[in-house]
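The records we work with from here on pair a chain with its fold. Each token is a code from a learned vocabulary of local backbone shapes. A record is reproduced here so that you can trace the correspondence yourselves:

_____
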Amino acid sequence: MKVTVGVTGGVAAYKAAELVRALQRQALDVHVVMTEAAQHFIQPLTFASLTGHKVITSLWESGSDESIEHIDAATSTDALVVAPATANVLAKFAQGIADDFLATMYLATTAPVIVSPAMNVNMWNHPATRANLALLEDRGVRIVSPDSGYLACGMVGSGRLAETETIVQAVLDVLHRSNDLAGETILITAGGTREAIDPVRFLGNRSSGKMGYALAEAALRRGARVILVSAPTALRAPLGCELVSVTTTEEMRTAVLRRLDEATIVIKAAAVADYRPVVPSGQKLKRSGPLTIELQPTEDILAEVVQRRREGLLVIGFAAETENALAHGRDKLLRKGADAIVLNDVSREGIGFDSDRNAVTFLTRQTALNFPEMSKRELANRILEEVMSLRRPQTVVAER
């Protein structure tokens, strides 16, 4: 398989040589495209010597034949990985500016694209950079988030190019995942259910549905059939999924149980309301002093799914906790009887509910795998990889 490495003008450009070698060790045919700025940090001859291929550095070079070179390169590659990706190239990609070979190739390719940013911490945190990253993620670009540490500029913080092994794994993921969920029917719940207090008010929660929708999109891209049972959100359902819209916990329960026999995997990412009013008011309640509302528990959908599941069905739950997260997550795993729990500590600021980023722990009866903060799109794929690993025989059990 052919992989194109795009090298842009940052101090970390020299690390791209190590990345090229690491990709070659995976039996990949590696080609390199360099921006003009990148050549101030490392010479094209280095990459030509490593790859045995011509290094493309300009739109205006003559090709070896009559083909339009950037189109030929874009259509012949199986993946485009840009490392390091500077703030400048992220902005070009996001805004569709095609003023050099790499940016033009990005617009012309339909292959998976991975970008591994590296820059000053303030540039990484700037709203413009964050907005450009969000746009690229929305378009399906895989973002390999930078590491934190001592930067070339002398500052300490996020912005250091991710480890080579991390970037290589991201490339292997996109190359090998195109159809790895073919034959699976994944039933995913998303969003936060609402329980009416009166005709205009409801009990609910802060769930945006972003994690569940990211899981649905990732599963579709990997070849699965997806049934998405969604409580109200502001999100557009991924193209190709079977959307079932619900509002209350009872409606979600009914929808899930109705489609349960079709599923091979159930992922309960929705944040269901745990209580509902015993008797909702038929008319809008007027403000008239203190108000007491008697509540009753809602249906336990996860427990019922586990109780009704047939052989071979994987059931994955989610747990949002604010204290003693690991202990409460393990308790939920054992009480509900699920195959795994995705544990989310929602007490942490800036991630989780209504955020595009999250950090979770994937809990099984034997393991606790921590995923550091990353985009929910990236996290969705990591979760799916762990879910599929549950289907494979486990020869070693270890706490990770």
Notes: Confidence is low (pLDDT under 50) at residues 394-400. The longest helix spans residues 376-389.
